[in-house]
Amino acid sequence: MNILTIPFRNIRRRPSKSLLLLLVFTLGVMSIVTLYQVSRVVGVSLEKKLIAYGANVIVSPATEKLSVSYGGFHMGDMLFDIQNLPEEETVAAIRNIKMSDRISVVAPKLVTMAKIDDVAVALVGVQWTQERALKSYWATGGSFPAAKSDSPAPGLSNEILLGSRVAGMLGLAAGDSVAILGRNFSVSGVLYETGTDDDTVLFMELESLQALLGTPNATSFIEVAALCSGCPIEEIVDELRAALPGTEIKALQHVVDQRMASVHFVQNLALTISLVILVTAAAMVGLSMMAAVNERKKDIGILRSLGYGKPQIFTIFCLEAGLIGAIAGALGYLGGFGASFKVLQLLAMAEGGTPVFSAAHLLMAIVAFALITILAAIYPAAKGASVEPSTALVAL
Q1: Where is 215: in which H helix or E strand?
Q2: Domain membership flag for residue 243
Q3: 85-134 per-position pLDDT tens digit
C-alpha cells in the first residue's frame, strides 16, 4: 500500500458513492462536450443560412462623380466614364482568391432601363442559380424562370420574373406575355412583396439581357456572399482589391456584424450553460470529498500514526478526485461526441458541418477535468490533512 494505490482502494471501498459521483461528473462533461460540438456545427450552419439573406460584399466598376450646378441651380450629382465589368474574368478572379473557400455565392448582374407600354422599368439580368442561392427568402406566385443549366431548350431564355410593384404598374401576372426591347417574353411568376428594391424591377436571365443590349460578357456589378466566421471580412476585401484593380470593392459591414452577432449569440449561450454545468459538477465533487473526509477520520488517524504526513494525506484526497475527473473526462468526451449527432438530428441543424472527433481534444478533456476535480477537492483535502492522529483515533 502506498500513496498511489490508496486512492484506488478508497474508490473500490465505496463503489456506490464512487459510481454515483463518477456518473454525475460524466454527465456534466458529456453535456459540455455535446454543447460545444452542437454550437460549433450550428454556428457554421446558421451562418450559411444567414448568407442566403443577401450579399455582404459588392464589386462594381470604379466611377467618378461630378456635382453639377450652374447659376446657383444645383443639377445633382452625375457619374461619368462608367464601364461595365467583364463577367467571366471578374467572376474567375473572385473565385481564385486565396480565401475562395470563404466565398459562398458570386452573383453577377447587368442593370438597364427600358420602357414597356410607356412605363419606365428597371431591367436586371441575373444568373438564376446564383441569385436564388443569394436570396432564398424569395417566394413567387407562379414559378421561377428555369436556370440556364436546367433549361430543356437550347438558346436564350424567354422567361422573366416581375417584382410585385412593377407587376402592378404593368398590369401583368404569371403566364402573360410582354414585349421588351423588341423581343417577346413570358412572365413565369411575380415575386411576393419583399419590402426591398426587388419589388420595383424586372428580372431576366443575364445572357438574355446581354444579347438584347448587344453587350456580351458585360455586368454592371457583382454581389458576393462571403462566410466570415473564420476570417475578418476586411481580409477578403483586401484580396478582392488585389485581384481586381480598377474596381470598387465595398463591404456591407453592418450586414456582416448583424450576422456574426447571431452566430456569436448561439455560441455564447452554449458557453454560459457549459459554465453553469461545470460549476455544479465541481460543487458535487467538493461536497462528496468533504463527506469522505468526515467518514474517514479513523483511516486518516491510522495513516498519520503510520507516518503519513499532512502533504501525503492531502495528496491522497487530490489524487482520488483527479482520478474520478480523468475517467469522467474520457467517458464524457466520448459520450458527448456521440450524443451531439443525435441532438443535431433532432434540431435539423446539421447542414453545413458535422461533429469532429479529435484525439487532442480527448486528451485535453481528460487533463482539464482531472484538474477541475482536484481544484474542487482542495478544501476538503486540506481539511482532511489537518486532522490530528490523536483526534482521529479517539473513537477507536
Answers
A1: none
A2: no
A3: 899 999 999 999 988 888 888 999 999 999 888 889 999 999 999 988 88
Separation between Cα atoms, residue 204 and residue 122, nearest integer Å: 11
* One domain for residues 92 and 222: yes
260's CB contacts (< 8 A; 6+ apart) are 47, 228, 229
Q: How many structural domains comprise the chain? A: 2
Q: How far is CA 388 from CA 41, 304, 320, in A?
A: 54, 8, 21
Domain around 147: 86-228
What's the CA gap between 48 and 227, in Å, rounded?
7
Based on the domain organization, do 97 and 193 belong to the same domain? yes
Contact of 340 with 355, CB cutoff 8 Å: yes
Length of the chain counted residue by residue: 396
* pTM attached to this predicted model: 0.56
Alpha-carbon dihedral 142, 147, 152, 157, rounded to 10 degrees: 80
- What ranges make up the beta strands (E) of the chain? 57-61, 64-70, 73-80, 85-86, 103-116, 119-126, 140-142, 159-162, 177-180, 183-191, 201-205, 218-219, 221-226, 247-251
Tell which wins on pLDDT, 18 or 163. 163
Three-state DSSP at 29 gives helix
The alpha carbon of 264 is separated from its chain's Cα centroid by a whole number of angstroms, namely 8
Residue 69 lies in a domain: no
